[in-house]
Amino acid sequence: MEAELSYMDAAVEVLRRIQATQMPVIRQAADIFADTIAGDGLVHMFGTGHSRMFLEEMYPRHGSFPGFHPIVELSLTYHNQIVGANGQRQAMFIEHIEGLAKTILRNFVISKPDSFLIYSNSGVNEVVVEMALEAKARDLPVVAVLSVAHCQAADPKHSSGKKLTDAADIVIDNGTPVGDALVTIDGLADPVGPGSTIGAAAVTNAIKCAVAERLVAKGVPLYVLTSSALIGSQASAEQFDQSYDEYRRRLLRVYGG
Predict the structure, then answer these.
(1) Cα 151 to chain center, whole Å?
(2) What mean pLDDT comes out for the span 88-111?
(3) What are the pLDDT digits (tens) for 54-66?
(4) Domain 3-254 - what CATH class?
(5) Nearest C-alpha neighbor of 225 from the set 67, 59, 70
(6) In terms of Cα–Cα distance, which of 70, 48, 51, 49 is closest to 59?
(7) Residues 209, 210, 211: CA angle, nearest 5 degrees
(8) Which residue in 252, 257, 183, 215 sits closest to 2, CA to CA?
(9) Quick check: helix, strand or coil at residue 83?
(10) Given a cut of 70, is residue 99 above it in pLDDT?
(11) How far apart are CA 95 and CA 76, in angstroms?
(12) Cα–Cα distance between 179 and 116 in angstroms, integer?
């Protein structure tokens, strides 16, 4: 009757699996993203559904810095309603429409030295695969964070027959099993307690820290969002403004400025 402990143990195992197997590709991704940011470019991030969380985890959060550009479509990610207008059924329907990613990117001017970071637990839904293919068509590097086990077990849905693992240059495994849920309870047919949030958030912050280390080594100034509990209210407010201003400066190019 200690399912809560089972979840904690399984979550720790996810983190151990990532640490044991994914550090080389995390470092490769950090090399790409550091070069992008040092070259005054942006790391464009995309995800549908719950994967939207990791875009916001990367920036803006305390301990984060500009250089990462979250591309968030509310029609694909707004889960609060669940039913009714803007409900979950609509969001899950829209993420299977081919042509949407291309339409989204039509709003931006994206070119080298930019790069892409795409999140998806399954790695097969049409919109995320198309986003990766569109980035590759622009000759930009693509890093994907997903469940390799789930992606391998799932059938491709995009008309190209490709999965996100086929379209990405670097694939980082979030360490979760097929179906995501980590805990089996006696008397309940279906497992509960998803683990992809734990795994993908850990990967995100590992990448963030590795990129920061590389940028410091390159002499690139970092405008870090830092808590007032650490540096006082005035200094914190000033650094927030500096960080947002730097983000806006970088964003001007992709909006045609």
Answers:
(1) 16
(2) 93
(3) 999 999 999 999 9
(4) alpha beta
(5) 59
(6) 70
(7) 90
(8) 183
(9) coil
(10) yes
(11) 6
(12) 25
Instruction: Give the Å distances, CA to CA, from 125 to 7, 11, 20, 29, 68.
Output: 27, 25, 28, 22, 23
Place of tokens 């008397």: 187
Look at the chain and count its residues: 257
CA nearest neighbour of 158 among 102, 196, 79, 89:
102
User: SS3 string of 85-145?
Assistant: CCCHHHHHHHCCCCCHHHHHHCCCCCCCCCEEEEECCCCCCHHHHHHHHHHHHCCCCEEEE
Residue with tokens 């479509």: 73
Both tokens of residue 194? Answer: 């998803």
**For the chain, how long is the longest CA-to-CA vector?**
59
Q: So where are the chain's domains? A: 3-254
Cα–Cα distance measured from residue 257 to residue 255, given in angstroms and rounded to the nearest whole number: 6
Cα–Cα distance measured from residue 68 to residue 32, given in angstroms and rounded to the nearest whole number: 12
Q: Which tokens belong to 119?
A: 């999140």
pLDDT at 85 over 90: no
